[in-house]
Known about the structure:
MutS, DNA mismatch repair protein, Chain A, domain 3, Rossmann fold, four-stranded mixed sheet, 48% helix, 13% strand, DNA_mismatch_repair_MutS_sf, ATP-binding
Amino acid sequence: MYLQTDEQTIDDLGIFGKRDGHGIYDIYNNAHTRGGEALLEVLFKSPLSDKTAINQRSNTIAQFMKANLVFPFDASIFDVTEKYLFQNINEQHQTQLSEKEVQNGVSAIIDLLHLTQIFVERNDVQQLSEYINERTIIEKILSNPAFEPALKQGAGKNKISYAAVTAFDSLFRAAQRIHLENLLKQLYQLDVYIAVARTATDRGFVFPRALSKGKPVLALEGVYHPTLTNAVRNNVRMDEQQNVIFLTGANMAGKSTMLRSLSTALYIAHMGFPVAANSMEFSVLDGLYTTVNLPDNLGIGASHFYAEVLRVKKMASELSSGKSLFILFDELFRGTNVKDAHEATVAVTRGFAGKSNSLFIISSHIVEAGEELKQQPNIGFLYLPTKMKGHAPEYTYTLEKGITDDRHGMIIIRNEGILETLKNGKKA
């Protein structure tokens, strides 16, 4: 079971970054192999929606972190093995491997089998209770009688005769190819576990606890955005009694960063990965959708407002099926006039509040809408304050309860000298 999401959300959260920019994926990518990197990308595209699976993966990685295990292979052995096993496999015009390439491939696989056996037989690996299923699969592959001659050969000990290379080549690339492919998949999985465990150690990330589906719960202490250094940490609590948060704050006060911090943690938590926080527990959801940077749909001639309307319509459709969702809108209905935005924000937020099995966060500059929504008992109100130091705004980036009417846009415009430039021209 996988968490439902979409490209808009993955883009909003910067999961894979853009062009030269690093994404959330890159923070966790300490993989040693191309196969490990590819598997990690798949995991980022398919968060889980099953409590048992999430907690099992989380507990496995936590055990690897505690054991401080290092990937037991040199990456080059995988490069040679993959070239030997998979070169030209999907090409119409296949070329024969050279005698040297065959010999190198055979030697690499013998080394791989031998080093894998040494690894799974280690005491510290045997004690990883959460890794027992994967370890058992590897042990079963290694116990295949067909691999006994290769294991007896040992890793890089003796030069392999031409006859032996020929026999092993037939064994590896024909008779036992599928078993070797399965072994590689297990080693890529091992690579991911160790890579993510290393991220948790190096960055001080914590492992969230997944709770059963049903009543929505999201409890975060000290959450921050994983790409920031010296970030301000915040606490957020949501549940059935307060399943909607209405967030206000001036421009540059940190609303969008706060929203991304929280939703990124929830996304990563559904992968069973460690998150940038002091502690976290959450009820497993069916889906997670964010709307932070919603583009105009020029392809159908749609304005920004109409794109917002279509986005809200999609969320309403998903909710109508009874799914338990996390839905986030940053500056809902910013694409229309203040009066329409006010009325629409109040109406839609009230509609969201009626879906007690889901969680919602709405940010807005329309503080009047917040005042009107105070009549709804399950809507909580948070804001990010601005402190004035003379004519200069300062931001704490620390959540406080309530609604703020901070509006410092004109102060920022004046501080930048824009009006003066327009009046007098640019100064030398």
